[in-house]
Design brief:
Elements: H1 2-22, E1 34-35, E2 51-55, H2 59-64, H3 79-85, E3 90-95, H4 114-126, E4 130-135, H5 158-178, E5 183-188, H6 202-223, E6 228-233, H7 241-250, E7 257-261, H8 270-284, E8 287-293, H9 323-338, E9 344-350, H10 366-380, H11 397-400, H12 424-430, E10 432-433, E11 438-441, E12 444-449, E13 459-464, E14 469-473, E15 475-476, H13 481-485, E16 490-498, E17 501-510, E18 529-531, E19 538-543, E20 553-559, E21 563-571, E22 577-588, E23 594-601, E24 604-610, E25 614-619, E26 622-628, E27 633-641, E28 644-655
Parallel strand pairs: 1-10, 2-3, 2-9, 3-4, 4-5, 5-6, 6-7, 7-8, 8-9, 12-17
Antiparallel strand pairs: 11-13, 13-14, 15-16, 16-17, 18-21, 19-20, 20-28, 21-27, 22-25, 22-26, 22-28, 23-24, 23-27
Helix pairs in contact: 5-6, 7-8, 8-9, 9-12
The structure holds calcium ion.
Length: about 650
């Protein structure tokens, strides 16, 4: 009996001790640096109030799909609790007005409504985390490429739409506050670079924003909850945020925080980000933050739905695609925002938990796994878009619907276990060190003309986990390079190893292309003629990776009301014979459009009609069988439309056959 009592007392004591420990100061506020799995420098003077956020919008749909999350000890645990334990203090949830078709089928991407934000917000509040409500003011994804009006607002007069947006915002935020979510911030629109809710003239966009902001102010006044208002733009690499902020000021949009997305593979340098945000902070007396950042920890695709950053893709890769690289990417953004001073209030990681939905043991092949997953995505909306979205967004979701395009950018592995990078916000306070080792050997991309010899490089660049760069020798797998040399147009991969790490060489076998500066990457673009027939508001060579098919540059056009132009180049000195001409084009918002590509030679003109299908849905029209005697061919693109935007890239004039 006494033994039992001692045991009981011991248990009580242990539980007491453990309880005490969990009430202790968080782990990241002690002495550092910690010895762990990553190198992360502490950010000096980082405020304890700095917002360390996570966009968790898809969590409920993932849970409904059977996804489980774990803590660092391998115990199943609410993902939100794990986030709070590891240093997060804020969640962000996107809200769509009505992401369902007429039969009640969800569009996907979490099928998020204000109810989703409420459920997640209340759960997050239990762990001491605040909620950022991210209104897209659309029935589905809103980004620089699309800002569709909600179905219910489509036929309203503009004044009625403003009122509807005010009412929707006020009712939603009130419901969230009354329902027990700790609403700290409301975002008025998502990546509203050019439009919002189907409006693309700034007086109208800002009138809608002002109405949303007023609704939040009114809720704050009515409830006594002080809620911050954020606006959200993106593309710091090609945009002038001061211009945006001035426009908001001139049009009386009342807000507190100017937020930007920052994806390191697309959005330019950290210096530029810091300059852009600090100028807005200083000139307009606003707080600033990064509303979305993410970086891939792997090249792999874990759910069979191609990732935006995946193998073979060419993009800026300022960090290795490793857990260490991911952690450094995040820590650098924290450091950058903190460097702005008191005005730099925080960073949100975009969807740390959007991992694959699980499949059964019956799914043996990748095809079987995909079929099972597809059924789950359709049922629970846990992919980025379901097939049902096609009725609302036929050009993008209607074509590309499926699973997670960012499962390799999560902070949990494909089975829900946290990656060491999940602790990066904490490490930004205390620092972390580990054993020095080679972290990544960089893949190589080479282009070879058809029938020319393929030569693989002997050395490649590599990166240590402390960020140091070195050159290492590669041992390539044995392959028949002659066979590749004589293969048709396409991309061929040779694998190799260097110091125990794998490396890939992507060989692009290409036709002889007679277009000079065909992708606009070289500074001298004098061989190109931009003929702005219709006084198109924007017609220029644009540096913007996200709108270029390859590299950084493309030809860009935009005008809200009328577009008419040609872009052309005359190629001379060709051997008499037969050629083909092709070009890539993407764009949207065109009305009554006439778009074709052309080739003129020896007094004849060849034409092929084409069109634009939405952001990054590249079309490639081709003219075959252009015959020339003179050896001089003028090739180009003609666009005429009542408004619209788009880009053209990678012009190709190849010998036929
Ligand atoms: Ca994927």
């Amino acid at each position: 009996m006494r033994r039992l009592l001692v045991l009981l007392l011991s248990i009580i004591l242990l539980v007491g001790l453990f309880g005490c420990r969990t009430n202790d100061e968080p782990w990241w506020l002690g002495d550092g640096p910690l010895e762990g799995e990553l190198f992360v420098d502490a950010v000096p003077g980082l405020s304890p109030d700095f917002i360390r956020g996570a966009d968790v919008s898809s969590l409920l749909a993932l849970e409904a799909s059977g996804v489980k999350f774990y803590d660092f000890n391998g115990n199943e645990q609410d993902m939100l609790k794990t986030l709070a334990e590891e240093g997060f203090n804020y969640i962000r949830v996107r809200v769509w007005n009505d992401p369902f078709d007429e039969f009640g089928n969800g569009y996907g991407g979490g099928n998020n409504t204000v109810e989703t934000a409420l459920e997640l917000g209340v759960r997050a509040a239990e762990y001491g985390m605040k909620l950022l409500v991210n209104f897209h003011y659309s029935d589905f994804w809103a980004d620089p490429g699309k800002q569709q009006v909600p179905k219910a607002w489509a036929d309203l007069s503009f004044d009625d739409k403003v009122q509807a947006l005010y009412d929707f915002t006020k009712e939603s935020v009130l419901m969230l506050v009354d329902g027990g979510a700790d609403v700290g911030m409301v975002q008025i629109g998502n990546e509203t670079n050019n439009s919002m809710s189907g409006e693309n003239a700034w007086p109208r966009i800002t009138a809608l924003m002002a109405a949303g902001a007023q609704a939040v102010r009114d809720v704050s006044a009515d409830t006594g909850h002080d809620i911050l208002i954020a606006v959200h733009f993106t593309n710091p690499e090609s945009r002038n945020f001061v211009t945006d902020a001035r426009r908001l000021e001139v049009n009386d949009v009342d807000y507190d925080i100017f937020a930007s997305s920052y994806y390191p593979f697309w959005h330019g340098t950290l210096e530029n980000l810091a300059n852009q945000l600090s100028e807005v902070a200083e000139q307009f007396d606003k707080k600033v933050m990064v509303a979305e950042v993410a970086y891939a920890y792997s090249w792999e695709d874990f759910d069979g739905h191609a990732n935006t950053i995946g193998e073979g893709a060419v993009f800026d890769q300022p960090y290795p695609l490793t857990v260490q690289g991911q952690a450094r990417a995040i820590a650098d953004v924290v450091k950058t925002v903190a460097s702005i001073g008191e005005a730099g209030i925080g960073v949100f990681y975009w969807e740390p938990g959007w991992i694959p939905v699980p499949v059964s043991e019956n799914a043996v092949t990748p095809e079987q796994a995909w079929e099972e997953r597809f059924a789950i995505w359709e049922k629970h909306g846990s992919g980025w878009a379901s097939s049902f979205a096609s009725s609302y967004d036929p050009d993008d979701a209607g074509v590309w619907y499926g699973g997670s395009a960012c499962d390799n950018q999560a902070l949990f592995d494909a089975y829900g276990h946290p990656l060491p990078s999940l602790r990066v916000f904490g490490y930004c306070y205390i620092g972390s060190t580990t054993t020095l080792r080679l972290d990544e050997v960089s893949n190589v991309h080479i282009s070879v003309r058809l029938r020319n010899p393929v030569v693989l490089p002997e050395t490649v660049e590599a990166t240590y986990n402390n960020g140091e760069q070195v050159t290492v020798t590669v041992e390539w797998d044995t392959v028949d390079l002659d066979e590749i040399s004589n293969s048709p147009v396409g991309v061929y991969v040779v694998r190799g190893t260097a110091q125990g790490l794998t490396v890939s060489c992507f060989i692009s076998m290409e036709e002889e292309n007679y277009i000079e500066n065909h992708s606009f990457e070289n500074e001298d673009r004098s061989m190109w003629v931009l003929n702005n027939i219709g006084n198109t508001e924007q017609l220029r060579f644009q540096e913007k990776t996200t709108d270029a098919r390859t590299g950084r540059y493309s030809v860009h056009f935009w005008d809200p009301s009328f577009v008419e132009f040609t872009v052309e180049q005359t190629v001379t000195g060709l051997r008499p014979g037969t050629y083909s001409f092709a070009v890539f084009i993407q764009g949207g918002d065109v009305v009554n459009e006439e778009i074709y590509i052309f080739a003129r030679t020896d007094g004849r003109e060849y034409r092929v009609d084409t069109d634009v299908d939405g952001w990054v849905n590249w079309r490639q029209p081709v003219i075959d069988n252009i015959t020339t005697e003179s050896g001089e061919i003028t090739i180009g693109v003609y666009v005429r439309s009542d408004g619209g935007w788009g880009t053209m890239d990678d012009f190709m004039l190849n010998p036929a056959g």
